[in-house]
Amino acid sequence: MSVCILYIDESGVEELGAGTSHFVLLGLCIQAHDWKPLDESLDAIKARYQLSRTEIHTGWMHRRYSEQESVPSFERLSCDQRRSAVEEQIRRRSGEPDFTAGRSTPYEMAFEQVLTRYQSFLSRSESIGIVVHDNNTKVAPRLHELSLKFHQVGTLYKQISNVVETPLFVDSYFTSMIQMADLCAFSLRRFIENDEADLWEIIEPCGDELNGIKVGIRHYTAKRPCKCRICQAHGRLVRD
Ligand SMILES: [Zn+2]
């Protein structure tokens, strides 16, 4: 029986009507025996951009940096020149929601969904799995409590017999795989909110699939009908 690890991270804010129109909670699943080569290749890629031992946060990479825009011919400068030009700029400048939350918060509902879908995948692939979660002091106690309940009585949808332990909370600064989960969650939110498909189209084929239906990705809109690409691929009229 193989062992899987699910890395969970979020994108957007769960508070209704506060900043983002969607809240994404995403689990990136790898086989445990693939962890070492994957972690090493991520380190090698980061080293190419002088980002060894640095946290990659996709939201920051995607942000518009006005300091860079103020530097003439920024694209033609070397890395070191870009860095010192931007530091100089910084020194100069130093100076309605679709649904209402019910008994659970959006975060808890999303966590229950991700865990249920992970269980389905583990069961079909005859694997057992653990969950690794980005450390989040706000939600950690509640997710720990929820996980204990799910282990005892199952989620609303399934017994989670192939998942072991409660989530292990790690610091994303030290854990490259959590940074990759962040990248996937970010790209999904940008796709569903802004129709930015470039990054998401690379990740989308990795979503769990069963009989031609993308069972691994769910867009929750309560009773509001939705025909977006995710809902169509998920076959909303087909039961999970
Ligand atoms: Zn949809």
What does this entry look like structurally?
The protein has 240 residues and is an alpha/beta fold. The protein has a domain at 2-41 and 107-204. The chain has a four-stranded mixed sheet with strand order 2-1-3-4. The longest helix has 19 residues, at 106-124. It is globular and about 60 Å long. It has helices at residues 35-48, 58-62, 66-69, 79-93, 106-124, 140-153, 176-194, 200-203, 229-234, and strands spanning 2-11, 24-31, 127-134, 168-170. Strand 3, helix 6 (140-153) and strand 4 (168-170) form a beta-alpha-beta unit. The protein has nine helices and four strands; from the N terminus they run ββαααααβαβααα. The mean pLDDT is 85. Zinc ion (ZN) binds next to helix 9.
* Shape estimate: globular
| Overall average pLDDT | 85
Radius of gyration in whole Å, from Cα? 20 Å
Query: Which class do the helix and strand fractions yield?
Result: alpha/beta
Helical percentage: 40-55%
Strand order of the largest sheet: 2-1-3-4
Number of strands: 4
* SSE topology string: EEHHHHHEHEHHH
List bound small molecules.
Answer: zinc ion
* Count of separate DSSP helical elements: 9
Stretches where pLDDT is under 50 for at least 5 consecutive residues are: none
Which percent range describes the beta-strand content? 5-15%
Distance between the termini: 25 Å
Largest sheet: 4 strands, mixed
SSE layout and pairing:
Blueprint: E1 2-11, E2 24-31, H1 35-48, H2 58-62, H3 66-69, H4 79-93, H5 106-124, E3 127-134, H6 140-153, E4 168-170, H7 176-194, H8 200-203, H9 229-234
Parallel strand pairs: 1-3, 3-4
Antiparallel strand pairs: 1-2
Bound molecules: zinc ion.
Zinc ion binds near residues 219 and 221.
